């Protein structure tokens, strides 16, 4: 697995500089977790890595193996972005639909080959949406929508996975289950995960960064020991949580409300 | 009241309105004949009307089909070849700004007196609402969806097919509703400019002879075509855009 | 070669095809054409005539000029306009040899004489020589076209007059609109142009392309028209029935019946007769009254047979 | 290329296209005169054209104003008085399906040959796209916003003013774009049916005299009005709906 | 302050019965917190209380004081529902705009009287969005949007406040601050708060309910002692968290994935 190196990334919206000369390395095959105050620039950083339009950007995204990142990314946005005209099943197989080539169409290959269909149904089962496979997303609850979006991302099967608060709208138990599921399915993928839950970061991250300040800066990585997903009963984890909370609090002492410039 | 009777009640109401209008304003028959006279004329000329209706209907439907297709294609071109836009838009606008009668000799010269010229006229009348609405729909796709499609590495056509197009459908639907209602006018105007059959021809004939009854009989048939075309289209559109239900009235 | 015997000997397939575009839908003004068609005079002359009807009277000259049709029925004043504007058009026979137009008012209206017209509103279907005609009509009374209000009313001439929206109409035909009023129970009064200092002109003529035309076919065509006219003049009632049966659904009605008999005396008995002096006089009249920008010479736009 | 020159280049391109069309198809001047002839005629008749343009322009703008207002009001009625809808829709459709020429005598009888009848005609031509688009926009407001407004105890008008209306603006914009482009036709057709001034009247005059140059000069002015009206409207609409930017083309 | 009593509430979407004969009392002037698996019916219950359209509903919502609930509710939905054509400031004063009477308009009273404006700005300051007051919400980050929605709810000043995961997209520190802020501003209001964070429920709730099963049922209330917002260092709280997590886990034992039918 290749590392992804973000070099001297800068982003500004007009006068407002979100971050400048930011450097970050996503270790190949590892999970990197990103914490940070609201509005500090996490989503923006993710979009920058995914090469999506934003303000005036600068900097380089390099892959260790020399190939460009494009088409090797699965991106899960902060909003669920489910398409209202497709059923849940159709939504989570959107990638397959979009990558259907002219050849596939001309040769009348089925839109969803049986193996893709099976995979989709098995992921839907794992995220607990089997019964919702054939309904439109408008009838889903907030958490169900998020799970559908997660399922879509997991279907993508890309080496680099960028996830923006993928478990934010889920209850504690479902969240733990889906964290385990993600760890299982994204084994050996390079993952960048944004979260607001320090414990989640510590449970899932090989490296845990904290983005803070204005312009935003990254702290040194915290590197919890052991394999992911880690058990929450782990004493090490609790100690690290203390350290992490300290960092978060430190920020809130600097500024009256975290992340706000 | 049951939904299925409503249209008939409306129809009846309109007839009554028409009748009272004729009576109240003391309309002379050569300006606005009463519904009874018109009905009589319709009965008398039933086969004639039917024959000419078929002609107009075929011009109209063919024009609609081609006009909608052309409109959609143009909208796609405007969206996907943004560089062409400033060059394409003005000629497009000009086709709309120029009254067809001025173009008629040219069209007749190129397309003759047959079906073609009427179809072309219908296309000219309807394609603009379709282009405008479809184009407005296509160019305002939610950016998040497009971003997602980009990261998924979708090809342009697939993105259009699966995202942009369905997202534009509600807007296109408005354009189609307008197109369907004005299509008969296109066909009729085409017939005025040169034809030997069709409801428009019948109307001109009747008008030239001051057979106002018969003219209004033809008009009634035309209006009926328009209205039923609208309701059919409306129903189809609702069926095909189920994810955009009407929201509450409060 | 255009006599009856030879054409009878030849078979139908050798008929020469001609397209004739009327200036408007078939009506009694086209009597000789229809009779010639129905009585087979065209065939006798070795012609097969395809009669077309337009809805815009200004379309036929353009189609003749661009060689889309061989012959068209048109108006003399408009032909002069066309020639003045460089269209390759030429007179190719006369159908109706007097003006049919006139200034029409309601008989029971306030206008008893042309001098009452000052300040009134005239509805018209624009023909292109209104100003000259009105100036001439009103000249004896000391006013002109500027002193009346002209309103284009399109095809709704009689209804605009009857509904009182206008005081008089122009472009209404004496054989039609007068009868139309009568059928609606109104009486009209017409001020005839030719009785009020306006040089006479032919209301309906045949036109052909001045550069490309088949003089032989036109001559035979006019011969058939002549025969048609003669038949009508000789057999008014019979010819009405033939005309009516040409398209009973469209033609068989009271208005057409009345118009038919009023029109008989207006058809030109010598459709091929050319009166260049009369044409020149009318063109000069138009030019003097500012309706023509350039002088036209009648020799240039009248075919010789 | 700078955006400010583009329209002129397009204009030039169109003129060239026109010219080549005339040459390529060997169009005789009496069917389609070349741009040079038309320009000459425009120069000669400048003051005449200007005078008549003012007439048509005022008919058109007044008609647009009233037609758009009427369209919006009708759309609101359709949305807010859902019970009226099945009764209102058919008559509305019928006004569109009936060619204005057929209505002309009636309109003339009621409104005379002055400005009013032309304004009414323009209104008739343009209000339907406005109604359709505005109505489609208004009835598909995001349900969540309406729910929120309901819990806030907003009054109907305020909800319309602050939520439904802005939400419908993008759809209405499509309707306005169509309306603005077809408005000149409404005015001109009105003039054909009964008038004593205006570009339509001028065209008829020119057509009757076979002054094809002058007719095309009038047409050119008309087309110019349409196109500039469209661009002005487009710009205004973009300014007033800033929250709905065009999304990317990929 | 009046109690709000939900009697025999039922809700079905076609064949799918979300809950049936559900009874719940929101104590007047107290905070009631609601936990529950994803898709179990929390949002639906909230909408039912707020009398918003949903599937086939049944049941009664009574206020102790006999008046109806309508117009006494502030509702914060799971989506932020910010209007894209209004700036943040205009969005959070939407209630004032919507309740403007004809009299106000005719008398040309300002849309925002100075005191409302001041209050709005002070709330914006407290949620840390002062600098964003005059921008359109499209330029906000996810957390900033949620804060704007919270600010709008706080502006409403209604006796009954229904909030659907109001702090879900916020980082830990901002979240604590805003919890404190909400407690302060909603003192003596009857509040129903849906959350996925057991600690948040325990920190803020006078009563903490758990909705679970299919059709969904409410567990008995857990009633943490002391005033809200409670300190997280409190030992009682930790004990209760154990109990609560037990309940949550119990559910996940019943069903393979929490909340899914
Ligand atoms: N319009 C609808 N039509 C059909 N089913 C619906 C509809 N809205 C919601 N549901 C179903 O009702 C159930 C309850 O949904 P609800 O939104 O209340 O869940 P929730 O408890 O808020 O979940 P979450 O924590 O994920 O937001 C879900 O299973 C959902 O799929
Ligand atoms: N289109 C835009 N125009 C102007 N400013 C923007 C735009 N998009 C984002 N911003 C600003 O950039 C900053 C960073 O936003 P970003 O969405 O990256 O935050 P975030 O770290 O993801 O926050 P959250 O945790 O709340 O999602 C914010 O202050 C936001 O207001
Ligand atoms: Mg974010
Ligand atoms: Mg919910």
Automatic annotation (TrEMBL), chains A, E:
Start and end residues of each ABC transporter domain: 4-238
SUPFAM superfamilies cross-referenced by the UniProt entry: P-loop containing nucleoside triphosphate hydrolases
UniProtKB keywords: ATP-binding, Nucleotide-binding, Transport
GO molecular function per UniProt: ATP binding; ATP hydrolysis activity
InterPro entries in the record: AAA+_ATPase (IPR003593), ABC_transporter-like_ATP-bd (IPR003439), ABC_transporter-like_CS (IPR017871), ABC_transporter_ATP-bind (IPR050166), P-loop_NTPase (IPR027417)
Family: Belongs to the ABC transporter superfamily.
Protein name according to UniProt: ABC transporter ATP-binding protein
Organism: Endozoicomonas elysicola
From TrEMBL, chains B, D:
Regions crossing the membrane: 60-81, 93-113, 119-138, 167-190, 210-231
Keywords for the protein's UniProt record, in alphabetical order: Cell membrane, Membrane, Transmembrane, Transmembrane helix, Transport
Entry keyword Transferase: no
SUPFAM superfamilies per UniProt: MetI-like
Gene3D superfamilies: MetI-like (1.10.3720.10)
Alphabetized CDD domains for the sequence: TM_PBP2
Domain (ABC transmembrane type-1): residue spans on this chain: 49-233
UniProt subcellular location: Cell membrane
Highest taxon above the source species: Bacteria
Membrane-topology annotation of the record: Multi-pass membrane protein
Keyword Transport attached: yes
A Gene Ontology BP annotation from the UniProt entry: transmembrane transport
GO cellular component, one term: plasma membrane
InterPro entries listed in its UniProt record: MetI-like, MetI-like_sf
PANTHER family: ABC TRANSPORTER PERMEASE PROTEIN HI_0355-RELATED, ALKANE SULFONATE ABC TRANSPORTER-RELATED, MEMBRANE SUBUNIT
Assigned protein family: Belongs to the binding-protein-dependent transport system permease family.
Name of the protein this chain belongs to: ABC transporter permease
Source organism of this protein record: Endozoicomonas elysicola
